[in-house]
């Protein structure tokens, strides 16, 4: 939207990435009960501010913003409109729908100076329905309406745990749809689920979509998206022969209800939840459209994605105990370029690092320069591998040869190559092109039901 | 960051833009006490959710996101790092700096289920200082640190007014800097102010930068950025002969303290505020770096921009009583293309609208199609002018001539032209290129002091 006027270089020396030096013989910290959470703190991706609340540091926010862009892209494809609703919601709205009593324990609530009570929103069904009600009755021509936002949400969890996986303040993407009748609403529901399927395929972490319980949100039916992981708090059952998937809240038996074969049980993390709501909110709050001259309640759907949780869960699934690994489209920087150490024999070749940086950057690939040249390549390489930059280019010993050669460390393929300048650029361009096409080819092993 | 896989068309029929039809003889509404606020509500840019809180609808959020992009751009130029801090802040932090008592009346506060008190943040000095303290003492090599965020803020105003100009929940951009000593902090302060000057020049609305009072934020000195407008709540004094500018809180006399000439007084809206804080926060909260083996408090600066307020104030200044006008870089869509009415004589030429749309879109210009072809051109033209799309292309009567001609309505230049297909494209490309270069040439009449 605006032009870059100055050449800029992303430099690790300027990056705010406080690294925790953990003594080798230290005991595992209590709160750090998952490997990804430990690594996210140690590598300066997030940092706790208070119980269940986390600062997103530059690398963490950068990954989140890439996820936001993927979401915006999928939403534009289905003509969903982005809005931003206030986070404080009059509690009278929640009284009107009967949710205040049910959810009270987990709500953050406050009174303003005029003694009016507000809820710090965990979800926006009432708020968005009240917005639509304020312009009701709508003309049928305006339907379907699909409004979404990406914003902070709150839940006063009794026991927050695992960093951003179960925090008390977190980032959600929530979408609300309004249709004329149940058939249309079901069409919209399927369209949105298709967009969510696409999104999860692009992220590239294996997911499973299951039949789910509607819980206190309510409505006629519901699906959940899960990442299978041993740190999960829910259990999903799946049947490999007939593609039946459900949460144990829906189906708690060991045999499949469709084909009677034995079911697999997997612990998993819920990362998305979709509901066909019907008129549970539109009726009490009077969100309507005109049919035959009369106002008729709109039929709603709602669709949530836990964005910070997707990030945390994906990192948990992809990382090793020692090194972070990111979903390809969410990695903060794709390439880390490393000039030689100051005063080393190769120091004279350090201009190659700048040149490689520039050419990669001009190819539209996200790159960062590790210009902390007071550190050895070895020390910086450990940091880069732990941070999880998938491609690390080192201007090392062979950079002073008559035909200079550079190291590429490819963390996804787990290999190292020595390549010429052109070879480096080609390699990075090719792997990056692959990445984009790979989204489309990426097969989802667990099919949706 | 990701490729568009499908051709997409932005269509007004899909846009959620509830238009208020205001009866001609209606009295002005009480809450609508400024022309821009009335227009923003009538044209579906924002909509009130409760006292002093506003839903940003798709067009409003789109403008805000363009402003965010401008901010991100300027911040990248000065190596500032984007973060996101939790909105809930333990009130103990505010007790430690002595601000809790001073600000209490305007704070939204709550208790969690463990009876711990939190503030819904109006500003993040304590929170960010506590983050830095958690990784203190820093090495001097890490300085300066510049962290910023774009996020919601809250202030429990006694009397919210004028829509997003003085709301209780609003979007701020806040930047915090950390330096080794006062001289370095002053250098950083000047660097950031330069970036803010650039930003305000790009937005293009005439601004004035004045000496200001440090108020309850504190610190050694402070500047404010103001938009001159009769709906403003502050008064700035300026001397045209010696370029002295100040708020009346700083200088409340009629003559200039530098040259004794008479001062001009103008009501204005404060849109930015910068502070050289010193160690007011870093000392009690122990944000330090190591000098001579000892921890020394960091010298801080803080820099706020009221993003939703900038948007509201700019619209107030640029709009007429009847029609919205946006700052060029913030307009939700630059071009609105209008195909003929269904069933009209020109209906056969409607393919030109699609073609024009596609070519403009491929030129990287933000465009929207007013495909509500059940409405006349006249009706849609009124909506487009009131919404403030600066370039409106109409496929009208002359589109069926042997050499088809199209109307361009240029709202900035207040003129209408009849041009060929190529002429339309050229005109739009040229004005859009101009727009980018105009940023750089844009003179700021009120110089900073």
UniProtKB/TrEMBL annotation, chains A, B:
GO terms for molecular function: ATP binding; proline-tRNA ligase activity. It is an enzyme of class 6 (ligase). It catalyses: tRNA(Pro) + L-proline + ATP = L-prolyl-tRNA(Pro) + AMP + diphosphate. Signal peptide: none annotated. Residues 47-327 form the Aminoacyl-transfer RNA synthetases class-II family profile domain. InterPro entries: aa-tRNA-synt_IIb, aa-tRNA-synth_II, aa-tRNA-synth_II/BPL/LPL, Anticodon-bd, Anticodon-bd_dom_sf, Pro-tRNA-ligase_IIa, Pro-tRNA_synthetase, ProRS_core_prok. Pfam families: HGTP_anticodon, tRNA-synt_2b. Gene3D superfamilies: Anticodon-binding domain, Bira Bifunctional Protein, Domain 2. Its EC number is 6.1.1.15. The keyword Ribosomal protein does not apply. GO terms for cellular component: mitochondrion. The keyword Transmembrane does not apply. This is Probable proline--tRNA ligase, mitochondrial.
């Amino acid at each position: 939207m605006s032009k870059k006027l100055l050449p800029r270089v992303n430099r690790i020396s300027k990056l705010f990435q406080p690294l925790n030096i953990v003594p080798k013989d230290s005991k595992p910290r209590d709160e750090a009960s998952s490997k990804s959470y430990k690594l996210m703190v140690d590598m300066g991706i997030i940092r706790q501010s208070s119980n269940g609340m986390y600062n997103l540091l530059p690398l963490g926010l950068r990954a989140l913003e890439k996820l936001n862009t993927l979401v915006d892209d999928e939403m534009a494809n289905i003509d969903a409109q982005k809005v931003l609703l206030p986070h404080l919601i009059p509690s009278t709205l929640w009284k009107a729908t009967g949710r205040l009593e049910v959810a009270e324990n987990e709500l953050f609530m406050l009174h303003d100076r005029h003694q009016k009570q507000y809820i710090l929103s965990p979800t926006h069904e009432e708020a968005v329905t009240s917005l639509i009600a304020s312009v009701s009755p709508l003309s049928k021509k305006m339907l379907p309406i699909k409004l979404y936002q990406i914003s902070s949400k709150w839940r006063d969890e009794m026991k927050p745990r695992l960093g951003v996986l179960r925090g008390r303040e977190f980032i959600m993407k929530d979408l609300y749809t309004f249709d004329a009748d149940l058939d249309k609403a079901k069409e919209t529901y399927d369209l949105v689920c298709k967009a969510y399927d696409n999104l999860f395929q692009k992220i590239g972490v294996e997911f499973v979509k299951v039949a789910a319980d509607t819980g206190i949100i309510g409505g006629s039916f519901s699906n959940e998206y899960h990442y299978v992981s041993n740190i999960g708090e829910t259990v999903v059952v799946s049947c490999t022969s007939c593609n039946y998937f459900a949460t144990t809240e829906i189906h708690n038996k060991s045999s499949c209800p469709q084909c009677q074969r034995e079911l697999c049980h997997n612990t998993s993390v819920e990362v998305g939840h979709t509901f066909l709501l019907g008129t549970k909110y539109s009726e009490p709050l009077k969100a309507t459209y005109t049919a035959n001259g009369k106002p008729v309640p709109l039929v709603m759907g709602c669709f949530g994605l836990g964005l910070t949780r997707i990030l945390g869960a994906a990192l948990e699934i992809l990382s090793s105990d020692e090194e972070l690994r990111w979903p390809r489209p969410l990695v903060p920087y794709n390439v880390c370029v490393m000039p030689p150490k100051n005063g080393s024999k190769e120091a004279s070749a350090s201009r190659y690092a700048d040149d490689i940086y520039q050419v990669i950057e001009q190819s539209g690939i996200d790159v960062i320069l590790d210009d902390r040249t007071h550190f050895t390549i070895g020390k910086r390489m450990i940091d880069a591998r732990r941070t999880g930059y998938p491609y690390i280019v080192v201007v090392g010993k062979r950079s002073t040869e008559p035909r200079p050669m550079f190291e590429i460390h490819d963390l996804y393929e787990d290999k190292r190559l020595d390549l010429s300048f052109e070879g480096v650029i080609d390699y990075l361009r090719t792997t990056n092109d692959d990445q984009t096409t790979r989204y489309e080819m990426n097969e989802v092993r667990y099919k949706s039901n």
